[in-house]
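User: I'm new to structure prediction. If I give you an amino acid sequence, what do you actually give back? Let's try with this one:
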Amino acid sequence: MAAALGDLPYSVQCYEQALALDPAFANARNNLGTALQKLGRFDEAIQQHETLLAQDPDFIDARLNLGATFASAKRYDEALATYRDVLRRHPRSFEAHFGEGDALRELKRFDEAVASLHRALALKPGHFEANVNLGTTLGLFGKFVEAEAQYRRALTLRDDPQIHVCVGATIGSQGGRFEEEEP
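Assistant: Good question. You get back a string of structure tokens that encode the predicted 3D arrangement of the chain. For your 183 residues, that looks like this:
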């Protein structure tokens, strides 16, 4: 409850107390790692997730959270390897395809990122963030027409002002000109 209220340092204390009583309490360790990630304490978060995975290699949420922590720490190669490990075990994991796509985009491997995000959207076509991330990736790859279409798909899911700006910027990237203000 403390994390929901925004008191992450208190959440960390609670999870640490739970682990002091029961070091094998998997959910407490996973939640501790996630709280530490949100606090920007990446090395500690990674340690918690890796400790948990040494105890239970099949704890998929811990493996996904480890990938997210690597990504938050801008350790994209390790995030990619972690997400691909999840996909070997769970090939229909939306979260792993989504994370893989984001890691690949950050590594500037745009063709692979687009393919991964398409696989994620095949599993959850109505996922707003995946639609937006695919639009962003297509735009970075110079596929402005496709990016615009993807952003417009995202807008059918949620009318978000930032995505309207993305549509406008993408149209501008296709050769549209913005009016310059007179001095």
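You can read the tokens as a compact description of the fold. Here is one thing that stands out. The domain at 1-58 is CATH 1.25.40.10 (Serine Threonine Protein Phosphatase 5, Tetratricopeptide repeat).
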